[in-house]
């Protein structure tokens, strides 16, 4: 029987995988710990480690996993920036490349609307029987220019939503999909043009060595005054220090984050009774025009179902054929 060490388990993971596993019969051990070089020895005797976005698989962890006899790293997510794939050697990693681009795109739109129409403020107010409108003034999204960085599955789903609002959409991508641009009515531009002309900028590219902290003081200076910035991709695409500086200067008009540069210790965990704090995150959380969610953009029932099914299938394919169509390269 294939033995799986399931790291960073949340209650909903266990419920989901117990259900899907009825058709596969894997021997799953659920662990609360995140996988890193300190916890990797827990994988001794397991064939597979199943991991999520905030498990860290660096070279040291990879070597320990190999010593433990692990043959497969099954990511139950799309992004794999947390795995040092160049150091994998004969260890294989597989992922779930698409579980629901709509989930993430729709959450990005929710962040945008929440910031624009101050829904988070209105909600707090009306609960206290305060029905004033002061400070709730928003803007029409219709007619604005939206810049989308990364026009893959999620980027395209977000472009579709923005098209519905009647915006002009500019996109930047390392690999342009001209056919989609024509069919979906958006225009590819270089990054500087996107920064200069967009009222709203949304990040939908993967995190790589190349675009680490691409949103920094220099790029922020190129953006429009009052720009709305959205990041549901990966926290390390943005330099948080520069972000705070530009929020304080009023350069950024609104910020929606579902991911954060140093989110590992905090996001998806209840830290409300802990004294551990992250200084920059704390500053962001006190700002009036910032909405932060806890890496929840993927979190819809439809996406979870696909994650459960595809992860189980990936493991089956790998052990039956020695390969997998969703292998990370
Ligand atoms: P995808 O692979 O379909 O699209 C990514 C696009 O980014 C591709 O078109 C690619 O050419 C482009 N790209 C690559 N490097 C780039 C660069 N340096 N600059 C500009 N564009 C670049 O991926 P998908 O499914 O759209 O996901 C995008 C990202 O969203 C993932 O890598 C992940 O980081 C993030 N994500 C976040 C989730 C959340 O819950 N917040 C859930 C799922 C994904």
Supply the key terms.
Rossmann fold; single chain; 2 domains; binds 1,4-dihydronicotinamide adenine dinucleotide; alpha/beta; 11 helices; 35% helix; 7-stranded parallel β-sheet; 329 residues
The figure for the number of domains is 2
The fraction of residues assigned to DSSP E strands is: 5-15%
Count of DSSP strands: 12
The number of helical elements comes to 11
The end-to-end span amounts to 27 Å
CATH homologous superfamily placement of the largest domain: NAD(P)-binding Rossmann-like Domain
Low-confidence stretches: none
| Topology order in helix (H) and strand (E) letters | EHEEHEEHHEHEHEHEHEHEHEH
Q: Output mean pLDDT.
A: 97
**CATH C-level of the largest domain:** Alpha Beta
The helix-and-strand class reads alpha/beta
- The CATH topology label of the largest domain is Rossmann fold
Shape: globular
CATH architecture of the largest domain: 3-Layer(aba) Sandwich
Ligands bound here?
1,4-dihydronicotinamide adenine dinucleotide
Q: Specify Rg, calculated over alpha carbons.
A: 21 Å
| Widest sheet, order of strands | 8-7-6-9-10-11-12
Question: How helix-rich are the residues, as a percent range?
Answer: 25-40%
Largest sheet: 7 strands, parallel
């Amino acid at each position: 029987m294939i033995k799986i060490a399931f790291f960073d388990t949340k209650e909903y993971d266990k419920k989901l995988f117990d259900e899907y596993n009825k058709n596969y019969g894997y021997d799953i051990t659920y662990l609360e710990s995140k996988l890193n070089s300190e916890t990797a020895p827990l994988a001794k005797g397991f064939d597979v480690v199943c991991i999520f976005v905030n498990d860290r698989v660096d070279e040291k962890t990879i070597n320990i996993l190999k010593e433990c006899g692990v043959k497969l790293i099954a990511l139950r997510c799309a992004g794999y920036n947390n795995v040092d794939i160049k150091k994998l050697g004969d260890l294989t990693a597989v992922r779930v490349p698409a579980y629901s681009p709509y989930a993430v795109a729709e959450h990005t739109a929710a962040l945008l609307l929440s910031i624009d129409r101050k829904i988070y403020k209105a909600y707090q107010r009306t609960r206290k029987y305060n029905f004033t409108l002061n400070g709730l003034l928003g803007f029409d999204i219709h007619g604005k220019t939206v810049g989308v960085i990364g026009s893959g599955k999620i980027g395209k789903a977000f472009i579709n939503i923005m098209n519905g609002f009647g915006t002009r959409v500019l996109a930047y991508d390392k690999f342009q999909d001209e056919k989609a641009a024509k069919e979906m009515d958006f225009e590819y531009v270089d990054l500087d043009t996107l920064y200069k002309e967009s009222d709203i900028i949304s990040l939908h590219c993967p995190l790589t060595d190349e675009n680490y902290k691409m949103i920094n003081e220099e790029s922020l200076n190129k953006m429009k005054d009052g720009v709305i910035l959205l990041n549901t991709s990966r926290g390390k695409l943005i330099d948080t220090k520069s972000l705070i500086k530009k929020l304080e200067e009023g350069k950024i008009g609104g910020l929606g984050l579902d991911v954060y540069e140093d989110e590992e210790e905090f996001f998806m965990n209840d830290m409300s009774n802990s004294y551990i704090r992250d200084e920059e995150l704390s500053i962001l959380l006190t700002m009036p025009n910032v909405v932060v969610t806890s890496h929840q953009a993927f979190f819809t029932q439809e996406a979870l179902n696909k994650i459960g099914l595809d992860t189980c299938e990936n493991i089956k394919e790998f052990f039956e054929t020695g390969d997998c169509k969703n292998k990370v390269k």
